[in-house]
## 1
Amino acid sequence: MAANDHYGESNEARARRRRSIITFSLVILMLFFAVWYALSYIRADATRDASPTTSSSTSSCDLTPEDVEVNVYNATDRPGLAAQVARGLRGRGFVVKTVANDPKRAELTGPGELRYGAVGEAGADLVDEHVGSFARNLDERTRTNVDVVLGPTFDGLVDKKQVPDC
């Protein structure tokens, strides 16, 4: 009865049934992950395609410096400029994340450039009030952070008394 143990079923039949169950389980598991992966892209596209109505209708007065994350980059040959400006922005309440030389190595000619995504426009407006009139560069980022890129004619932050109160 060694060949036909377990309810009259042969070892070969049990092995086929076991392989069928394993194969079916793997197919179901792969389908689950494929759907999950596809949904993550659909959600990402929906987030990217969403109109930035909240940021375009949000004025800089609706934000405080504590609401805005900035990265300060030096695109000049003046050492320590980014660190000096970062200290000034921190002193005004901005959340400074990165202080470094400009990773894009842009050749700026004016006082500087603000880089931001569509959802960070209100934050860029607020930063601009503190750094002066910088060129604007709207990029594809989906976060609200703002890059402050300092150019060769930058001569300091705007006097606190000249920054509009809300």
## 2
Amino acid sequence: MATIAATLCLTSATLAALPASATTGPVARTPAGDGYTAQIRRTEYGIPHILAKDFGGLGYGYGYAFAQDNVCELADHVTTLRGERSRFFGPDGDSGEGANLASDTYYAGQRRAGTVRQLLDRKAPLGPTAELRRMVEGYAAGYNRYLRDTGADHLPDPRCKGKPWVRPVTPLDLWSIVYDVNRLSGAVPLAPDIGDAKPPSADGTAPAAGARGARASSGVARRGPVADIGSNGWALGRDVTRTGHAMVLANPHLPWADGNFRFYQVQLTIPGALDVSGAGLYGTPLVEIGHNRDLAWTHTASDALHASLYALKLTPGDPTGYVVDGRTERMRRRTVPVTVRDGDGRLSTVERTLYTSRFGPVLSSGWTTRTAYAIRDANAGNLRSMNAWLAMGKARNLTRLRTAQDTFQGVPWTYTLAADSGGRTYFTDSSVVPHLTDAQLERCTLPGGDEAPTALDGSTSACAWGSDADALVPGIYGPSHQPRLSRTDYVANSNNGPRYANPAARLTGFPGTYDTDPRLGRRAQLGLRMIAERVGGRDGLGAPGFTLGTLGKSMTGNRVLSAETGRDDVVGMCRTHPRLTATDGTETDVRPACAALARWDTRADTGSRGAALWGTFYDHLLGAGPPDTWLRVPYDPAQPLTTPRGINGDDVRVRHALADAVQDFAARGLPVDVELGAVQKWAGVPLPGCTGEQGCFDVVEAGPGSGTGTPGAGAFGTSFVMAVELTSDGPRTRTVLTYGQSANPASPHYSDQTRLFSRKRWVTERFTEAEIEGDPAVRTTTLHR
């Protein structure tokens, strides 16, 4: 254990005076660097606090610290974005035959076209600011410094130790990561489908599917992979907290094992210029969810459309020609060479072709002699997101945050929920949304079917995107059309549309493309119910109003709304019918299961007995048909906060579902009252939570082998949790990064915070200089030219 030897003054002069290498604590000394100065102080759970005198040094320290924890993840991601997976791993991948080749075709084509380079050539606000350019350059240099100091053959992570694909990165690689993140709701999930696109053969048959995504045609017209990403966000104002201080709860839900979606926790400080703490996605150089001294914010995935699928009417006899306004246009072709490794390790080059229309890249899925589909992504020209997040990190109040978002218009696909030390809250969808009017959506949308996705009519320019006078770039809505709400009580979102950010002040009057589903999901209903009950003191947590403590307890309460409103219906049914028939016709004794559900507290805690059974039962129900057909009270638009509810025990599908669940448990050798934490784990650590469809606020989906390297045993859900109170003396913050700072299974920070999460415990954030120095085990590394 080491302590700081002397107080570190937060001044540029102090940093400039540091020797070429200075460390305190049990950290190896580092040799001279690459023209940057930074200090990395790690507090409990390996959380780095980066201190520098300029943005280049800040990026340098950040890149070095991140590489210490996650060198393999960044190296792997860069290999993908350079279009080199086939070179190192062969043409096939985890997602199917030819998956790597299809992905490489897309990314190599993008690199060959110079897409990201062209965006970098733009001046701010369209291109990155000078501060950000310097920060990204420093980040690349810091990562490379760690790699050079350590050596690829001596990396601590066995997954990439000595691997040839672990190489130095460039600023272009990092900007490519940013560009990829920005298009997660559009083209990125379709990369294999775009890379695999081929015209149909002369006889009209479609080419082999290869790796193209079956979900591509059906899902992208809505929100791409963002449809599968969840989050909860609350901003609580002075009217609903017992202290009168504003608070923010951040609870994003993301895949745990996917390095492209994981969060990394960090504090970034340049004295007098920036002091922000929170988390950012791997490989991005900033805090994207976090707080400074006076402002806190979080994001949830927006329900808006961020890309459009267009149906192209093809020219008869020519599957690469399409008709717009009665005239034929030709698809543009780009030949892309891809290097491929065969089973014997030999390298060869294959040439692939990408096809593009005026509406964007053409997809393999659905390409016939009559029709093809193209994807137009509103974030296709967006590197502005980092500008927005840096400006948000500097903002000291909600007015400045709003100015930051309006200036750069770069938040790619999320809502923003924020609060400031004045006790105010703010909700907005400032994301990049295509300018499609309600009339266009009504007139231009072609209905989908078994063989065709829902898409816009690409045969007429009248269905193309319009523009706003206040939009920074053509084709998108400007700030004047964005849904916004300012309150002194609260705003909240759980991936529902904007209208219920606060039910007492429903948002209306915005374009329909911002709200693709007016109904509230069960998780969103539960979140609003939790706030109302806490404000009224009806949740068993004490006097009315939020404190930082009750905010944390609300988050970790693990309530299950479907059980609160339907468990008694199911218990009544199975008590009346102790033997039920399963879907396969087998008669099943459900009395033990019925008793287990009756005893269950309707919570999804690790020790809850009945939660696992309920989850399996409910999954069977969801697979049996639309919920409105087997619920006791169906959805009523006049009661959006309380319907649907209950479960109709007279419905044969409900009875089948319980019998099927009992059979599932028997087949797995599990007692029906098994503790949830026995079957839901990460790296052997029991996990609370359940799915959003069940009505869990704390969403967690995992199997017993998740986080142990078992193929296919991933996990999803609550990732970086932040509860912050903005007091007059500065922020008071508690966090937990559910999977820890490192994706390296050999790291002590792989699952250390998972154990906290399992026990409903938090990390008390160290934000101020005194708090950081107050950690008796702080470890300091100084990097200096």
## 3
Amino acid sequence: MARQFAAVDQLLDDALELPVPGKDGTVRTYRIEAPSADQGLRIQRLMTSATRMVESGEEIDTDVLDDAQELDLYRAALGSAYDALRAEVDWAWLKHTALTAVFWVVADADTAERYWAAGGDPEKVAPALNRQQRRAGASSAVESKTPRRASTSGTSTRPAKPRKRKAAPKG
């Protein structure tokens, strides 16, 4: 029997609101709506291809994402906010805002928020917990290369001889 779920009126992460400084110095909040299903799938496919290339050590294939496709990716991720952002902000802010939206689409709002707060710096994007885990892993890796002392707890396979107990002094 199929399990029936209750209807959901709205998804929790249906939009992002990002404060972006304009060329004139004024900070405006831009609302980035969730992309259509087709655009979301396209963004996911492009990012998956790029991620695979980077992870395998390949150079980024410009046939997969050339300059025009990069701008088209940004347009897809930013939706109706794209034209206003393009007219009102510098390139660095357009790119940062678009990539934040891309991370939101392909991962989640928490990942996008970490990217946004890090200003695009990859070292700052990793959550503090992961950084602590990497550090702990590095120290345990160093420790594991150091040979441990042999146990002196008598763990041989021979049965232990019973010990004779000393009698308590009478007194």
